[in-house]
Specification:
With 298 residues, the protein is α/β, with parallel strands linked by helices. It folds into 2 domains: 240 residues, Rossmann fold; 50 residues, no CATH class. It is 39% helix and 14% strand. The strands form 3 sheets. A 6-stranded parallel β-sheet has the order 5-2-1-8-9-10. Strands 3-4 form a two-stranded antiparallel sheet. The chain has a two-stranded antiparallel sheet with strand order 6-7. α10 links the parallel β8 and β9. The chain is globular and about 55 Å long.
């Protein structure tokens, strides 16, 4: 798809759009200082384990590998704190600024699966909360970086952290056990006994997750890029399935979805295409990474 067409999608849906951005933005363009999640886990392995590994073995997911790391942690390091320390000095590049400023100009929410603060540092954002009570540093889901207070996450621009944030190192989700904890917490918000607590109409503003980033996920059209969304993204994949279940029950609430990748990228991953299309996402193939991280934002 041409950059102008992708721009038209964003502008044509600007009144009800949110963005989900993954670690791809940090690795563009061939950034030698950015870590893949594999790199990050291997650095942790070198800190805690006695056995030498040059790479993560085949047949074990990233999340499972982290849980094995916890078992191997004979030094009893706080691994989540170690991750926060590894990422605390990351600074934004020009394309971070370009994209964040554009999303701010749209007054749209920005969700990220990343932990670090490269987005918030582009605009010198402040840490804020939509809920003054009931804060937990394990799940700071009503905490965001922004420039203005929001009553609801869907009201305007804010930077929200799906998998945790370095401000609260215990919130960082890396292992399968972490993801299962997030699923359990979100499930308790979405369901009450055997009855859904998230309903259409006015109840969309009253359910337990209304003041968390979950409200954005269910209440906005989602534009996803820079995110592999591989099988190890257990929590987010589960949420996208729950989102589609909700839309099938309350069709008047249905929102759109777009997943952006480079041309031909999806041809080698039929399972991901199958998953995304079944949970309501249109797959957009850009010519190259420059289109995704620069051209469509100019």
């Amino acid at each position: 798809m041409y950059p102008s067409q992708i721009k038209d999608i964003i502008l044509g849906n600007r009144d009800n759009i949110a963005f989900i951005i993954g670690n791809g933005i940090n690795r563009y363009p061939n950034n030698p200082h950015a870590l893949s999640w594999d790199d990050l886990l291997m650095q942790l392995w070198d800190k805690v384990a006695l056995q030498t590994l040059s790479r993560r073995p085949n047949g074990i997911s990233l999340t499972e590998f982290y849980d094995i790391l916890e078992l191997e942690n004979t030094r009893e390091l706080q691994l989540q704190k170690e991750v926060a320390l590894m990422l605390q000095d990351w600074q934004p590049s020009d394309h971070h600024r370009l994209i964040t400023e554009h999303i701010f100009g749209l007054n749209a929410p920005l969700l990220t699966t990343n932990f670090e603060e490269t987005f918030s540092r582009t605009l010198s954002c402040t840490l804020m909360r939509t809920e003054p009570e009931g804060f937990t540093d394990f799940y700071p889901w009503s905490t965001y970086h922004g420039l203005a207070p929001l009553s609801l996450p869907t009201e305007g621009f804010g930077i929200w952290y799906i998998n945790g944030m370095i401000n609260y190192h215990r919130s960082i989700r890396l292992g399968l056990s972490h993801y299962m904890g997030s699923v359990q917490r979100a499930h308790a918000m979405l369901y009450k006994a055997q009855e859904e607590e998230l309903h259409s109409g006015d109840h969309m503003l009253l359910w337990k997750g209304a003041r968390t980033w979950l409200q954005i996920l269910f209440g906005k059209s989602l534009f996803i890029f820079g995110l592999g969304l591989e099988e190890n993204e257990t929590f987010l994949r589960w949420l996208l399935i729950e989102r589609m279940k909700f839309y099938r029950k309350y069709r008047d609430q249905k929102r759109k979805g777009w997943y952006v990748c480079t041309r031909g990228e999806m041809n080698i991953d039929a399972g991901k295409r199958f998953f995304l299309e079944r949970v309501g996402f249109e797959i957009i193939e850009a010519a190259d990474y420059k289109d995704i991280y620069e051209t469509i934002w100019l």
